Every structure is written in structure tokens, then in C-alpha cells.
Amino acid sequence: MQLTDTHCHLADPALLGSLPQVLAAARAAGVCRFIVPATQRADFADVAALSALPSMHIAFGIHPWFAGSAEEGDFIYLERQLAQHPQALVGEIGLDYGRAQTQEQRLRQVEVFERQLALAQRLRRPVIIHNLKATAAVVRSVKSCRFTQGGIAHAFSGSLEEARILTGCGFKIGIGSLLLNPAARKARRAAAELPLADIVLETDSPFMLKNAVNTPANVREIAVIAAQLRGVTPEEVAAQTERNVDALLEKVGGF
Questions:
Q1: Is the bond into 72 cis (omega within 30 degrees of 0)?
Q2: Are 200 and 216 in contact (CB under 8 A)?
Q3: Predicted confidence (pLDDT) per residue in 20-39, tens digit
Q4: By C-alpha distance, which of 162, 252, 236 is closest to 2?
Q5: What is the DSSP letter of 205?
Q6: How far is the C-alpha of 103 from the C-alpha of 37, rounded, in Å?
């Protein structure tokens, strides 16, 4: 099987210091392609440096956790990085209403999100969306910005109905490390029942695992579990999800 980790923070200190070993373990597991998003201006340079590695694809964006501290210079720098990397996606961007407790914080997240959606639309780049307890607001922003470039709704944890709303907006659903938890019923239902053409695989490394550092090698186990839930072979899951990634990266000439 050939697989892609469509969301791994390889520039995070937990992985960057041992990156050769992390990538070797991933490739031994059949995970041979990687999409690495940034989360704030402070990690843009480290993410940009990774683009020189084989089968590495990158994204630049301001994560909703950092919306409150984002300044005008950050948006200027973001646009500059995207101009310098024409194959980069825009991400990780989005809304996190689990973290934003006040209306003011939520409005600021929406402002930062919509500004980046508008930039991605203008540059014709797909986006990588962080969405926690905010599906309705994410969809409102996508429609308000007339965003049509698609992308990935990453680390999906919502209902099957929410997933279908997002796929209707042109997004693939990122099925990831939640599958490693047998109690994650919503994520497992999405993996089992969504059309395979709507799914991509990810880990969100180095996060998502309790008492362990997550790594891209775990995409293989995620593919195996998704296959078991669907009653198909892991090779079938791998083949279709890879086609889905190919279609996404073709939009930026990165396939």
C-alpha cells in the first residue's frame, strides 16, 4: 500500500528533531507522502524548509487558536509565503468554538478565518480546515466568502450529517487518529458510511494520542481500521484515498 498523511505537524519540536527516523518509519509502513500545515507565523519558516524534501507538501495559515494574537504583519507575511510557494495550500485555518468561549473571541476567529478564505479563493488554493463545534459557522463563512477551491475538513469528529454538509461544500473529510480509539463512535461511523471518494487519511502528528507521540506511520493502522469498518480491503481504502489526495494536489500543481 502507498498512503499519504494529509495532516502532520512535522515542524513541531516533538518530531522535527528526529525527522529522518520519523520519515523512515513512515515509509516502512507505506506512508510515502505528507501534507504539513503551519499554524502561526512563528512556524512558517520551518514548514517552508520542509518543502525541499521529497513527497512533502506544505500549507501556510493562521490557526484559530492564534486568531486573537494575529496582527496585520502576519497576514502580509502569509500572503508573501504563499506567493513564494505556489504549490502550498492554505492552512491550518478555521474555527474552534471549544476554545473560544466568548462572543468576542468567536467573532475574531471568524474574521481571521474569512480573511484567509478570501485569500485562498483569490489565489485558487485549497484549504485545510480546523473545525471544532463550529460546523454551521464554518459553512456560513465558506458561503459568505463564496469559497469554491475545496480542501480538507481535518480531524473530523462530528456527525455523519455534518460530514455530508462539508462534503457538499467541496471538502474531503480527514479521517484520522480518532479511529484508534474504539469509543470514538462518530468518527468510526463517518469512516464506515461516507463514500470513500469523500475521505482522506491523516494522523495530526504529533498530537491526538494519550501518553504517546503520534507519528505518520500510524496512517497505515488508520487505513486498516477504516477498511475493517467498511468491510473492504486496506488496499481498496489506500487506492481511493490516494486518488482523492491526487485530485486535491493537482489543484496546486503539486501531484
A1: no
A2: no
A3: 999 999 999 999 999 999 99
A4: 236
A5: B
A6: 27
